[in-house]
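>> received
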Amino acid sequence: MVEPRDVRVVECAFEYLSDLVGTSEEELRGRFKPDPPTDMPGVFVHAISTAKNRDRISNAFEMIFLQDGETLASSSLSDLLCAFDPNAFLETYRSDEHNLLEQFRNRYDLDSNLRKMSVPVQIAKSIVSIAEFLVQFENISKFKKYISAFYDNDATRPALPLVLKEEIHGFGYALACDFLKEVGYDKYGKPDRHVKEILFGLNLCEEDATDFRCQQSIVRIADNSGVTPYVVDKLFYCIGSGRCFEGESTGRRSEDFIRFCANRM
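>> returned
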């Protein structure tokens, strides 16, 4: 049974965001599509990009590892990480984050006594675990086949982020969903704090719900509204974070959007 509130909140989100950024709903729909990688180095890059978003360390990561205007794929990390080839990386560093950390220290002039929870240490652990997970896939077709074994079944799809959470250092359930949606699996959304603020504020999900349950709410809203969970995620994230398109900022609008919706639902 279709829940009218779910349908209405997506309609409201399109209306609100279209007015906010000065574009049409049709254009938003066109832009809210994943851009999946075409090879395993691309998957490696996406996974690292996801890992750096844990615990709000993204800014520190970019200050250390990226020069102005650089992307992760074009940065000096490409050389250090063997052009993001998981096999070559593991052969070079022998699955040891300490070897990678030593290269970080030399290249980026880092302190020799890094704290256990420092950004370089945590990123090194994440990168090694990502490579160890990805090396089992000979090519991207094998990677996609593995993902599809979970993704193509409604009953097992929610379990895949739980697997990634255990396999990759620093991935929680929400980050695992984020990685999957950005490598092309649009039946996932990322239940981050911006998305959850809207879910909770409009009583679309229980306030004490886990990320797992919040993700299920995103899926329910999407299914009832005839869009993908990826689209629901992007609508709520853009509104909540104020970061919609590259170089554009609209300010955080969760509270204003919740009032906007409440008057129309």
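>> The chain has two domains: 4-33+186-262, 40-175.
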